[in-house]
Amino acid sequence: MSSYLFPPPAEEVRAEPGVVHTVASGDLRRSANVTCWPTQRQFEGHLAAAVEALGWQVRRAHPEETIEGHGFIASQRQGIEVFRNIPPDAPLIVAEAVWQYSHHVLAGLRTHRGPILVVANWSGQFPGLVGLLNLTASLTKAGVAHSILWSEDFTDDWALRGLRTWLETGTLTHDQSHVRDLPQLPAAPEVELGRALAAQLRRDKAIIGVFDEGCMGMYNAIIDDELLNPLGIYKERLSQSALVAEMARVGDDESQAVRDWLDAAGMTFHTGADEATELTDAQLLSQFRMYVAALRISDDFGLDAVGIQYQQGLKDTVPASDLAEGLLNNVERPPVRSRDGARELYPGRPLPHFNEVDEGVAVDSLVTNRIWTAMGLDPATTLHDIRWGDEYDGRFVWVMEISGSVPASHNGGYPHSYSMRQPPMYFPLGGGTLSGVSRPGEIVWSRVFIADGALHVDLGRGTVVELPAEETRRRLDATTPQWPIMHAVLHGVGRDQLMARHKANHLNVAYGLDAASADRALLAKAAMFEALGVAVHLCGDVRL
Predict the structure, then answer these.
(1) For 430, which DSSP code?
(2) CB 407 within 8 A of CB 436
């Protein structure tokens, strides 16, 4: 007889008719989970009331509040344990009123057989909409069927109709009539340019530097080499510990020189003395060391773009990376020389930084940088979170925000840019932002994502509008007031259409000189992506 130790047979939990199970993925940081928990609890109450009013019973799959002071799934291990007790065939709702780490629940969702609905509250206070978009992008990449829905409090007719449809059928679809595949391109100089730049990229190749992948559980932001390399793009895998080590080699005089340059350029720093709650000069000097170190390491490896993870790796080691990232993205920036002082590094041009190591943005930024440079446009790019939006003066205006890595040119220059301390909830060691209000103008917006095992890109046009100071203040206070903000109107794309379609929490933006130049740049960008073998989709009112 065998003495092997066999695992005990597992009995599958059976689904009960009329019962919907719910889970809530959260942050890895207890400080964020505790702060955000009251908002999540309120949102789940609204959702449960709506589901029960439709004749269903809600069963939360994990405790509403633990000894940690919140009710979120706060790790991948916890998520795996929670899903062991969820009937695999049961209807399942992932409820999100906050930013969440998708990998906490992705393992369970990959093997769940029942219908899945991801819901978020329509609020800017804590980025539940951003969390929903990241999770749905991750599920799309993983090939997991799911539906999505959003509502302020699940009392509006639109959301209730959607919830009823999903409960009765297990699926929910939204209007995506604004999306169309790229048609045959016209004979135009911009098309020739895009194709020539694609051929050059494939021939000469480019390297993106990745300071540790998988920032904040963003599975969708990792692009495997097998998809990247055919474009001519290769990864240099770097460790953030090397970045910290290089920071230690930067002299005090070098970091102070960066500060002096920015002061002379007119940038404002809101500083104080309390390290725990205020931005200090010491935090800023550390960030300027990171800026110098990132350029030197990028020069060492011949990088064409670079991405710093920061969260979680560096948050307990050094102040925030965002100020350094914003400086890298700008054409005009403090000069940095090689270690021996013989050369200026990347002179007169940005070194594109893909915030939070989002490799979809890395590809997008590389393509944008080359097209905009060739067309004589400002090649500064950045990503934004699709944070929230609201009606103003008869049109829907999006709030686009990111944690502070916007290039100064997008704010109208350094005199219109400022730096504030990052929120302690997310950034315990502080550090400043590169913030401002994005200047009015015409933009091209885009997103590279993975679906059905292939690279896709959505392209669209928009206008950044100027809102009254009091409305800007209201929107900042309703979101994260320390961060840079963009007031964006997307051409021919409604609120719910963008939410239903967008396969990422991030959106890449670049300015044109005017509407005509932005249209031409989009045409060249579409041609370059098509020549690289990326599936191109046009969104909204795009003129080719």
Answers:
(1) -
(2) no
Residue 353 DSSP class: B
Q: What is the CA radius of gyration of the chain?
A: 23
Helix or strand or coil: residue 510? strand
The single residue listed with the structure tokens 């699940």 is 154
Burial environment of residue 439 by CB neighbours within 10 A (0 to 12, 13 to 18, 19 or more): middle
The kind and range of the H/E element at 208 are strand 206-211
Distances 116 to 47, 82, 167, 483 between C-alpha atoms, Å? 15, 16, 10, 33
Let me know: does 131 contact 505? Beta carbons within 8 Å.
yes
Per the CB < 8 A criterion, the answer to whether 318 and 286 are in contact is yes
> Which long-range CB contacts under 8 A does 109-112 form with residues at least 24 apart?
109/83, 109/139, 109/142, 109/144, 109/146, 110/142, 110/144, 111/83, 112/83, 112/86, 112/88, 112/144
What does the mean pLDDT of the chain come to?
96
CA 526, 130, 218: angle at the middle one, nearest 5?
75
pLDDT in tens, 94-142: 999 999 999 999 999 999 999 999 999 999 998 899 999 999 999 999 9
